[in-house]
Amino acid sequence: MGRCCYRSHCYSFSQQQTNHMFPPVVEKTMGYYSPPCELEQGMYEIIDACDALDGRTDGVVSRTDPCKLNFNLSSSIGIPYFCNAASAITGYEPAQNGTITAEGVAAVEDILKGLHDPNGLGAYLSFQYGTSLDDATTIYDETTNSWTASTSETSNLEWSNFTYDTLREYIYTGWQMYEETLQTTWPDLTATLDAGVKIIHHHGESDSSIPPALSVHYHESVRSILYPDLSFNESTARLNAWYKLFLVPGGAHCAANPYQGGPWPQTTLGSLIEWVEQGVVPERLNATYTSGSDAGSEAQLCAWPSRPLWSGKATKFDCVYDQASIDTWHYRFDSYKEPLY
């Protein structure tokens, strides 16, 4: 019997690479470049507001979905921030002192909405609430004493002329070029299924490089292609019998998160071996807290589409089905005529 194990896999090459330019283009389009400290403070406001939505207050946003449904980003406007002067990879950063602005919030709202064309049609997905928006980080221009997009220092492209539609065109061109090579989103895994392969796929829910919604979208694509005539629950059960997706609460890009002391899977390969060789199905995935007050303690990760929930004053843990939460992970890519897997 075959076996397979992977985590936040970098697929959708043309979309993923172009998506790194989306936050700077949002800032350019809106004419406002948030100081890094403003972005960071905004992130902390989201974390503080949404921490307890899973029923437990632990500094980790385990449920970014109800956060997206319930948290009003505008509530952060006017909240003060301060950061000391520091050296950065891209140059000097002066001390930053101010308040979260309406312009900064508007930019974050557009980034979290995801790339869309001039008609408002969806072109790509985006990050979860509470994620550090690293691609939106600005750099300080000492000649003008102002903040500017980091893209201007790291790209030879004439990015100042870019629009949302430019990015959409880049995606479509790359999609055609790399469909058979670097896209790696082929959803028909019939041969994989027939070979008896087992897949454990996990992705940090606060990944700031590859949006975790991409893993959800791929998992859903496989489900819809392999089991088109079954209901959502029936097809999910069939798929989860051999391919399981686990979202890691607070998890960053292929690692634990420096901003949230959440758990990270440490024994995934062992779980896979037990599944393949002993038939021990990983209904939940083991993870370990690597920092904070819970460092060293164990956690259980829920298999998609179930979501984590604590009850009884955070004494009882369960994985629950929440349709409203599930719906927040689904994007419509109606800017294209072809299906995007």
TrEMBL record:
InterPro entries: Tannase/feruloyl_esterase (IPR011118). Pfam families: Tannase. Keywords: Disulfide bond, Hydrolase, Serine esterase, Signal. GO terms for molecular function: carboxylic ester hydrolase activity. Its EC number is 3.1.1.-. Belongs to the tannase family. This is Carboxylic ester hydrolase. It comes from Aspergillus piperis CBS 112811. The lineage of its organism: Eukaryota, Fungi, Dikarya, Ascomycota, Pezizomycotina.
